[in-house]
Amino acid sequence: MNDIPPAERVEPISLLDGLATTRAIRRYRPDPIPDDDLAAILFAATRAPSGSNRQPARFVVLRDGSHARLAKALLARSFRARWAEKRAADGYAAGSGTDPSSPKARMAATMAYFVDHFEQTPVVVLACLDRGRKPHPHDGASVYPSCQNLLLAARALGYGGVLTVWHTAVEDELRAALAIPDDVFIAATIPLGRPVSRHGPVRRRPLAEVVFEDRWGASAAWAVDPPGARHTASRRASTGHEQADLDR
Ligand SMILES: Cc1cc2nc3c(=O)[nH]c(=O)nc-3n(C[C@H](O)[C@H](O)[C@H](O)COP(=O)(O)O)c2cc1C
Fold first, then answer.
1. How many domains does the chain have?
2. Residue with the nearest Cα to atom 19 of ligand 1?
3. What is the domain range of residue 221?
């Protein structure tokens, strides 16, 4: 870890600035997250809205207990398998990916670091949905807002993380290891820790491409990005290649 620069100072940040700088962080320092910070992060997660305020979201927090270590080892296997599939499917090693300085290759390097160090991730949160009813198409809408609240709160306290769904290759073993009932939906696996790199501007499509007024496809003259907004490189559906500078 000697090549890791000093951690960023944690400065108070406005909600809007936090929103604009909460990007996916996949490389973590090994420092544990203190209980108070973890409680604050989970509190924010539980402030999220849910349908009829039913509050079906549940959070299994994995640190360094015996179950957690087992679960992290299972997840590490799953993450490595899923990244290997994505790397091949999205052609990360082909084309510009052969140039180590290309965005594609840098993204691949971050991903490799992420999955190779998964067991050392200080905290992994399994965001779950305890349905209590038959599956419904809108179920996810009662758990994913809590995931974003969690990531925003982590950002406010100087931590970083990323919403992932790469637990799926070991889901049955994970349920067995952690006694997660079959009717509970594991919605996301969210690793958290102090970033190796830094928080930074999120890049997205410009407002003009995604905001319509009055009818579908009609541009809105007022829908203008604030000064300094960063954009993704192209209009095509992103594979993530062009985002490689975000967690370098
Ligand atoms: C529904 C959803 C599923 C995701 N699944 C994964 C995943 O399995 N693995 C991963 O590394 N990132 C995953 N991500 C993170 C996205 O890749 C990331 O949020 C996106 O590329 C934007 O990154 P940025 O905020 O750094 O710009 C997921 C994000 C969402 C919203």
1. 2
2. 24
3. 202-235
Residue with token string 């992994």: 124
> Which letter does DSSP use for residue 73 in this model?
H
Nearest CA to ligand 1 atom 6: 164
Q: What are the residues facing 164 on neighbouring strands?
A: 189
Q: What is the pLDDT of residues 3-48, one digit of tens each?
A: 788 888 899 999 999 999 999 999 999 999 999 999 999 999 999 9
Distance from residue 30's CA to the centre of ligand 1 (Å): 22
Q: How far apart are CA 20 and CA 32, in angstroms?
A: 26
**66-89 helix and 103-116 helix, angle to the nearest 10 degrees:** 150
Please report where in the chains the tokens 């696996």 appear, as a residue.
189
3-state secondary structure of 127: strand
- To test the ligand 1 pocket, which listed residue (164, 189, 204) has its Cβ within 8 A of the most ligand atoms? 164
- Regarding whether 218 and 183 lie in a shared domain, the answer is no
Ligand 1 atom, smallest distance to 246 CA: 26
